[in-house]
Amino acid sequence: MLKLYRWVSICTIVLFSQSGLVFAQSLLTPAQLQEDLQFIKKAIATIHPDLGFSADLPQLNVRFARIEQEIKQPMTRDQAWRSFSQLNPYFYDAHVTVTFPSIADEVATHLRHGGAFFPFEVQVETDGSARIRSDLMGDTTWAGARILQINSVPMTQIVKDILVHASGDSPGLQANLVSRRFWFFYWKLFGDSSHFDMQIATTRGEQHLRLQAMPIEPTSVKNNQDFKQQFQFEILDNHTALLTVNTFYSKEHKAYLALMQDAFSKIRQAGIKTLLIDIRQNTGGDDVMWKEGLLRYIANQAYRNGSSYTKKVLAGRASATEKVGDIVHGQVDTWVQPEPDHPEHFGGKVYVLVGRLTYSSAVLFSNVVQDFGFASLVGETGYARTRQSGGTNLEHILPNSRLEITLPRFILDRPSGKREPALIHPDIVLPDNPLDAREMIRLLMQKLSAGKN
């Protein structure tokens, strides 16, 4: 693990791994840390329209007070994150989180200074259990193995320690968001290491592994920037096609729209009767992506993305009737008209697959297709809230640590206005197996073949 050496100056500490120098970090004084903590409080009060919509405010205030009392010694930026991110679980909203502005930049900097990562992608659960999905390059040799210990520390304790810093609408979503970047959380919380001694359990019994840390950019980070990994189309059989949309954000917007039009053209030409749209890995983006790329082809009536809303009026968004700082309650009055005469309009049956990571704009999309009857939802329930906060496109960088607090400026009810059930509830409940993404597709197709839905 990391060894700590102080220079003569108290302004900087140098962190070493067993393989040598990794990086230097400036120390933040207690006064600077307190200033950052107050910045978080002020940003919440300025931006968020109603923190109590998700958070347990008394518990959150206790956590704020505890962090404030514990700031007595200088800290590095990473140590500051370890302190401030203890607020994250108490927000109960993945749109409210203390985080690093860019995971990709953190990874690149770490690798550039000789760092490396825990070698596996890991699925953790709220009970503290953890299973290997693949290594960081995507190899699935050890997939399914249960991790019992890492460097002699029980995995249940490691997961418990990590979840203390996790954001999300529910404990389940917190665990799933941690699972996207387990290696990142492990590094930021427990430091750098040249190797890992692991105790795992497989179908052949318990085994001991001694593995080197991997000095590579994980495939999961690369895939976030890979257009072909984010958007895919395939014809499954003579009657069924699958569109996988892993994000509603892309710098290649025109390429995305072209891909969607081409997919629906192929659907028409092939005489497809059933379309599956997989958004299980989609953590959101911009609503225009699903309005122009998906609902253009499947909507059969006018729709809107929500019903009632609550918003905070921010600087630059004021009007004659809405002053900066006002909290405004209203109704969504922007309706999108369908395009039934579009040459690629699809009139068959649509199923939208939701799961462990469906979030933000992807939840709004699932709300719309469910409330207006454009599609049936298929998948797991119990992770993301259907009443979503949003408008997190403004940066709120802490002045000293340069960490970020993400905050929403509005809260949106689903189009139907219903608030129960509070979390996404599919029309057809099927498991979202993190070790086998195709399982849900197979199970659904079996149901369809049997004529059950």
UniProtKB/TrEMBL annotation:
Source domain of life: Bacteria
Record-linked Pfam families: Peptidase_S41
InterPro entries: ClpP/crotonase-like_dom_sf (IPR029045), Tail-specific_protease (IPR005151)
Span of domain Tail specific protease: 240-429
Official protein name in the record: Tail specific protease domain-containing protein
Organism: Undibacterium amnicola
Lineage of source species: Bacteria, Pseudomonadati, Pseudomonadota, Betaproteobacteria, Burkholderiales
